[in-house]
Amino acid sequence: MIRAPSRGDRPGPAASGTIVGMVVLPPPEVPYGATAIRPAWADLPPEPRAAIAARLGSPVVWASTATGGFTSGFAAVLDTAAGERVFVKAARLVDQRHLCDWYAHEALVTAALPPEVPAPRPRWTLTVGGYFVICLEAVPDARVPVIPWHPAELTAALDAWATSAAALADPPAALVELNLPTVAMLARNDLSWWREIVDGRTPLPAPAAVVRDHVTALAALEAELPRLAGDARGLTHCDLRVDNILITPDGRATLCDWNWICHGPGWFDTGALLISAYASGLDADGLWSSHPTSAGAPSLALDATLAALSGYFLVRATAEPSDASPHLRAHQRWHGEAALTWLRHRQGWM
To answer: Which residues of the chain have a pLDDT value below 70?
Structure first.
């Protein structure tokens, strides 16, 4: 089991200062359990509601809309008169086609995940009344962790990821046959924003002014990521963050939203998840070094990951507000600033 250093009681919302030499950043102004704007069960048209109930084999007697995440599709825990509880997501085929494609992909991926991976599995999908619907196992009474991290919850998340990464190191044929993208491809196509800034195609985001003299070095670091990630056969989640994790009442972690799964090294997601641990004042460098996914990782793996993600988050945070969530840009800005601060400490740029 991977242990996060204990800090006693959970720090309050105004946590700040330095603890045992580590930085504690102000927590994000993002309520991760309530970030999305979604329709409720009663907002769905009668035809898909009737079809969902028919497929469940019993009327829906209670629905709790999922308020986490950054998309606008329907998502809710449904209880039936027969006592069954499931998690259902739905999106319109015409104007939410991208969500429908994501849900269909999620059904294929989660159905093929090795049994060791703690993730909800799909029950069924259907297309009805202009909607695509996916029904997944519910995770009873689970909740999203809060930032700053409670050490025990971070330990559970890191343990769940270690187990998952080990199971995905030699992925089953059903996942390989999906022709999934690679982390190297993602890094080249979507995570090269410092290079865009150096070349004058993108303005330097305001929070990045503190590294104005290091932008060329940041571009060089992010450019290492495609090479370091290589052409790994193994798979990694590629979107492992606090709002894609659920903590169960017994303290275990379940990993959700596998839409972006890629061939690549598990250390990429470990570095991404530990950004919020660093900002919480925990020993993120120690946790990185001790995590099984980091064993044998290239020496620049963490710094290249932090460079690529900090550029991506900080630039994306300057985009127009999202209709799906009023909190998306704040989420991106906070993660970008945290990643950049951690990297500055590692590089001695403070």
So the answer is: 1-23
What are the pLDDT digits (tens) for 191-201?
A: 999 999 999 99
Confidence (pTM): 0.91
CATH of region 143-347:
3.90.1200
All CATH 3.30.200.20 domain ranges of the chain, comma separated, are: 41-137
**Where, residue-wise, is CATH 3.90.1200 in the chain?**
143-347
250 residue type, one letter:
D
Residue-by-residue DSSP string for 204-219: PPGGGGGGGGGHHHHH
Contact 271, 168 (CB under 8 A): no
CA 243 to each of CA 59, 268, 331: distance values in angstroms, whole numbers, following the listed order: 30, 17, 10
Please calculate the CA angle 323-325-331 and round it to the nearest 5 degrees: 130
Q: Show the beta-strand stretches assigned E in the chain.
A: 17-19, 22-24, 60-65, 74-80, 85-92, 122-128, 131-137, 235-236, 245-247, 253-255, 262-263
User: Which CATH superfamily includes the segment(s) 41-137?
Assistant: Phosphorylase Kinase; domain 1 (3.30.200.20)
Find all residues with CB under 8 Å of 267, minimum gap 6, and list them: 291, 293, 294, 297, 301, 302, 305
pLDDT at position 69, please?
85
pLDDT the model gives residue 15: 29
Supply the angle between the helices 215-229 and 328-347 in degrees, to the nearest 10: 100
**Residue 10 CA from chain centroid, whole number:** 22
Number of H-type helices and E-type strands within the chain: 11, 11
Report the SS3 class of residue 241: coil
